[in-house]
From TrEMBL:
InterPro entries: EamA_dom (IPR000620), EmrE-like (IPR037185). Belongs to the EamA transporter family. Residues 14-149, 161-304 form the EamA domain. The keyword Transmembrane applies. This is EamA family transporter. It comes from Actinomycetospora straminea. The keyword Cell inner membrane does not apply. The chain crosses the membrane at residues 12-41, 47-67, 79-98, 104-121, 133-153, 159-178, 190-218, 230-250, 262-282, 288-304. SUPFAM superfamilies: Multidrug resistance efflux transporter EmrE. Pfam families: EamA (PF00892). Keywords: Membrane, Transmembrane, Transmembrane helix.
Amino acid sequence: MGHPDARPTTRTASGLAIALLSGFSFGLAGPFAASLIAVGWSPPAVALARLAGAAVLLAVPLALLLARGWRPRAGHGRAVVVYGLVPLAGAQVCYFSAVGHLSVGVALLIEYTAPVLLLAWTWARTAVRPRPLTLAGAALAVAGLVLVLDVARGAQVDVVGVLWGLGAAVCLAAYFRLSADAGGAEGLPALVLTAGGAVVGSVVVALLGLVGLLPLTATTAPIDLGGRGAPWWVGVLLVAALSTALAYLTRIAAVGRLGSRLASFVGLSEVLFAVLGAWWLVAQEPTATQVAGGVLVVGAVALIRRAEPPERRSTATAP
């Protein structure tokens, strides 16, 4: 018989690996989207293509799941609608609106305060003070993000933009919480949650575009990826398949293994991968300041990983 702690340790290790894969997938969304925006796509149009494309790609595996006998239960429809409205459509609409008032770096920084908001919400809800090591990790993560995003260069501050950015942060925090709840008593598969949420999110963004609240502009001009030309649909396929369908599925799986708190901080790796992806795909070389920030973020994740005991992480998805 194996050591009693072997299973939680293995579960945590696999959760960290899956979370990093998710961060890598999410991180490439920025460079893929930038290649489309550079040739005339509006950011909301990229968001719509991202969500609608993911919904189409996930239709086949979803049909196979239904063919194998899975059937929705009471509460599943509500969970899918909330997931599509808040973490999918809500986060993207708020973020793109923030970018309209703030520099990209500042908007990202505000959105990625989500793990700290989640930590504060859990503290307020349970009245249990986080461990000092967890608080230190949160502070270190924020400091690292400031350096990674390099907001000191050309930063612009606008109250309306800050409010939109905070809205994106709340939606992102809700994403981690809803992902943790997905594996609870309702037993809602990640595939159903992601596919259904993508459909709901697509409808919401499309409706906002039709009524004129969001600009939906797209072109068929070829894009540039890593110094090579490619058809526009390659960019759409990559952002939908790799940076949406795979990214959301793996992040839900990671949250189920790590719990929403630890997974949210590991999710900060998305920013690091975004910087590396921009270097690789659009020739935006990271600065020494960004590298130093990356080291701080990795250190923050290590601190929080050490602060969270195995029994709390392994029961994070309990109802």
